[in-house]
Amino acid sequence: MEIIRVNASKEYDVVIGKGILTSLGERCVSLFGKSRAVIVTDSNVAPLWLDKTQQSLQLAGVEASVFTFTAGEESKNTATLFELIEFMAQSKLTRSDFAVALGGGVTGDMTGLAASLYLRGIPFVQVPTTLLAAVDSSVGGKTAVNLTAGKNLMGAFYQPELVLCDTDTLSTLPENEFANGMAEVIKYGVIFDKDLFDKVSGGDVKSDIESIIARCVELKRDVVARDEFDKGDRQLLNFGHTMAHSIEKCSDFEIEHGSAVAIGMVIAARASARLGWSDEDCTQAIIDANKNNNLPVECAFAPADLADAALSDKKRTGGTINFVVPEVTGRCVLKKIPVDVLYQIAECVN
């Protein structure tokens, strides 16, 4: 078992290990006492892990009600968000009670945002059940839902009180969902850690998944400690995401986030090389790593459509946008570019 301490505006532990979901109740009681909880989960995760989660809380003396929503990115919207907040009110949660996000990134983002809004803030706990959530979205306090205009445009910074990652939950993931998580792992390697990139680029990762998750969490912990509110270094974590969000939007979210990030990293690397921003062309290494981890490397959307979608991205500031450039594998930098250059970048889709 690995325990990583995150030092942000709120300090909390990220606990990673096999079979640790049974300890959730005791850990929550040590944090909040024998209060009440709302477990938030989706229709895919509930049949797999809800019973064990409820049992752990109940055995520790925590009374828990359950809010279940239809699985999928299409549920990550204001309608579901306000349904959840109304449910919290109907459950008569107080500020000494808490929410549990049991699921992937959609569940964690929406639960965190609801917790930040209800009663002007109640505690919440992240229990990621996907690799993508474990290595990325469950840590660092970014919470959000999508608007019609784009992805994650309504949100808040709101840190959890605890992140508990039971690696057993990853055993029930479909292969494509595991691959989506590996896109974020590859991303961490390209941005910060060539050794991690080399370790995972061959695709044989499941036997060492606990240490891989822990390394990604350490890397995110360090950048969040330096820049919790996303004004500088934390924006490096958006490598591949400018085009990824466009790909998701152009596909009506049929292309999943991890797959979109995989393609977005290829576009970003290819554009950086073609425009002379990189010291080393990382494109082929990223393509190989994606393929070895069952991830896509291209999409069929028109470059102009991708660029137009990117113009609504939340990372835009007036006439510029922050773009993450891989100078070499293991080192990325932020480059402020005119929005017009997005059309040149999108041309690097192939």
Number of beta strands: 12
Biggest sheet overview: 7 strands, mixed
Our measurement of the CA-to-CA distance between the termini, rounded to an integer number of angstroms, reads 42 Å
Instruction: Write out the strand line-up for the largest beta sheet, numbering strands in chain order.
Output: 1-2-9-6-5-3-4
**What is the molecular shape?**
globular
Q: Which structural class do you get from the secondary structure elements?
A: alpha/beta
Round the mean pLDDT to the nearest integer and report it. 95
CATH architecture call of the largest domain: Up-down Bundle
Radius of gyration: 19 Å
Beta-strand residue percentage: 15-25%
CATH topology of the largest domain: Dehydroquinate synthase-like, alpha domain
Low-pLDDT runs of 5+ residues are none
Mind telling me the CATH superfamily name of the largest domain? Dehydroquinate synthase-like - alpha domain
**H/E element string?**
EEHEHEHEHEHEEEHHHHHHHEEEH
- Our count of domains comes out at 2
State the share of residues found in helices, binned by percent: 40-55%
CATH class of the largest domain: Mainly Alpha
